[in-house]
Task: structure prediction
Amino acid sequence: MSLINYKYRNMMNIRTSRLKNTAVILLEGRMDAASKDVLQDEGDRLLATGERRIAMDLSRLTYISSAGIGVLIRLSALVQEAGGEMWLCGTTGAVRTVFEITRVTSLFQMHATVDEAVSAETL
Amino acid sequence: MTHTAALLWGLTAGVLPVFAFLTGLALLDTFRLVRFRQVAEAVVWGGVAAVLCVCLSRWLFWNPGAEGDWYGMFGAPWVEEAAKAAGLVFLIRTERVAFMMDAAICGFAAGAGFALVENLVYLELLPGGGIPLFLLRGVGTAVMHGGATAIVGVVAIATGRSGRGRSLAMGLAAAIGIHTFWDMGILSPLQASLAVVVGLPPVFILIFQRSERALQMWMGQKLNQDVEILEMLDTGNFLETPAGEYLRSLNTFPPEVLGDMVCMLQISSELSAAAKGDRIRIWAGLPQAPDPQLDSKLEELEYLKRSIGLAGRHALAPLMPTSSRDRWELKSLQDSRRS
Result:
């Protein structure tokens, strides 16, 4: 996997890398109302550069509120509009709870790990 | 001795004991519940209260004859104690003071500020009063002013905690009683000053010990609750717990609001646990460990409050009971961020 971008804002790190033909965005820390824009910008940047397969690695995300989920829903819609696919991978702990109670899991393709998502979707 | 030197010595004798006593109280605050700024503000309030009382008494009652004496004995204690206590009531009602210990310190500080201005007025009225007179005023009257206002806060917190009318009235009644007894002159100034110097420190030590026990008990219980909530959230199975089932039963709220309620539980518990950790570090004499995430968490908390709304916060109350002490803790965090 090769690192292609790194951003940091308000307790959230974003590392973008490439695995096979997929852009993998690793979110680390807390995605709150103040830090959500950095993901928005990164998603827009990837779409603008022609990326159409995006895996969001949420395994190191410890917090997400409706602001962050809103960004994920918007990005997912943009990727689909562009004819691509976006997967959410590795939700755990409180983040998983927030996804379940907000009943948005059906809006996304969810996978346990990035490897699983990339290999399943490239079959 | 020149006139100016006499004034300076009189002022020093009149205020030094009460500020030394206040410093002693602040040193007994092992959990650092009260910030220096808060003490300074209480002193300033006490001074303002004294100016208001002097103006009021001069305008309404000042008459060196018999009527003046009656005001001094029975009117002044009501007016002065109410004026000094007003600042303390504000601190309690706005949840900036939540324990007997901080109520006592802030109350005493207001009384010290009051005594400072009152002694300045006496210096103007009795320029030749001499150091012994002002020493008696400093040790006796000034400490009485501080002690009486401290008692308003201690009684209000001990009986009501939230600063409601009845508990405040009880505290104020106790302060007025002490002040009236003092002004009646049943004890000579020397006897009264000795009574204050000997009697007040043990009373404050008892109050502080009791307050410290209450604080430790509250911190222990709340820390357990916070850790329990965070552990439940960390497992990812929170929604299978009774707390999670309760949240799911709130299906009249939009799903995104329910999600933000989970976030509110998480952030509130994190902030609360971190604040208690800080308090324990201070008590143990360790340096504070500043939370680099504090600013963003407090900002996020405001976002969540707006997102959830008042009804949502009420619905969340059974999972996240918030007492005046919890709100005090949050205010302390916000104040520490500002400073």
About this structure: The domain at 2-118 of chain A is CATH 3.30.750.24 (Transcription Regulator spoIIAA).
